[in-house]
Amino acid sequence: MFISRDPSSTWSSEKLFILVTIAAAVGLGNIWRFPYIAGENGGAAFILAYLISVLFLGIPLMILELAAGRAERGSPVHTFRNIWRKAAPFGWLIAILTLIITSYYLVITGWTLGFAVDSYTGDIKSFSDFTDGYASVIYFFIVAAIVGAVVAIGTNAIEYLSKLLMPVLFLSVIVLIIYSLSLPGREEAFSFIFSPDFSALYNPTIWLLAFGQAFYSLAVGQGYLITYGSLAKRDVNLPRSSAIIASVETSVALLSGIMIFPLVFTFGLDPGEGTELAFTALPFAFENMPFGGVLAIIFFTLFCLAAISSSVAGFQVVKTVVKQELNLSNIKATLLSFVPMLPLGLLSAISFTPISFEVLGRPFLEVLDLFAANQIVVICGVVGGAIIAWKIPKSEIVEGFGFRWRRLAWWTVHVARYLPFPAAILLIITWGV
Question: Could you say which architecture CATH assigns to the domain 14-432?
Fold first, then answer.
């Protein structure tokens, strides 16, 4: 969820800063992406690597990006240019990455809208039936128009509505978890989620995907944190705020896994189903549980609002860069941002239609997600952290953390400075695999 504000303004309190930052990221990354990546990569071993990545890498880099945004008060391009003039192109790379991610976010948001519409008619289709026709393309254009209008007009209605209804979405997830835990597949699911094969941790691909999901969930390397940090007051305790935000984000992701996998094993689904895993498993739940029709309406409506808000957040980052760097009006910057975003999104949408556009034997959307949200996010996260850690004096970083958190500041600076080298080795090895 992104609440449009003038760049010179700030969040009124640390509590509001935490709430809006959580609301910005909770949504597709947690409920849609985490279960499918975990399902494709062995479950528990991936989850363990993910938790380690969040704790030792994700949170330190998250704090650095927030601190840089608060110090420079601008877009990613503005921030990196001010930190180091030669890093302005890197700020553009982050904007392009966010544009790519937002392009297929719009497609998945279209899926949530389609399932929400079906829930109101009482005819929730299976995902295979949903993609038999061109619903994926139709709903993509509808969602793109909605998100574009919100960003261009600058209305806050959907953001405030999402903020109000997020607790209800969380409650509906809890209800689904209770139902899932009553199913016979829960024991197999728990083994899949909580009993890791430690030998799998020797696989570099698992770690790269874990880094990618950690950065993706926490919005590291995507411009969100710099943008939100630019609106944080000086008295906001960034380490404490980051710990709370990361805890909520990680908890929602784990709860989504607990919600999805008992359904997967009970109804004989494949945990490696891919991007459609949640949309394949959830209809089985609503069809078989008491009052499933009513809960389906509540869940998919709120999930759709959260997804639209996430898409607005990504679009807003891109539009802000275009607007500031090219000195355009709000509407012109929005339209220009659409120029590359629509073709990419359309290719992702038609990969789940009878045309079935594929690359390397997988739907184009999946390939784009794995490439952008793992390879490029990891690169942007570690390189961005290194630029901040090397170019901002360590004394200023420690001062920004506060005296009580000086040891964490020391750890953060050293992680960010020296992480790119092992990360590059990991990327090279994984590319070879």
Answer: Up-down Bundle (1.20)
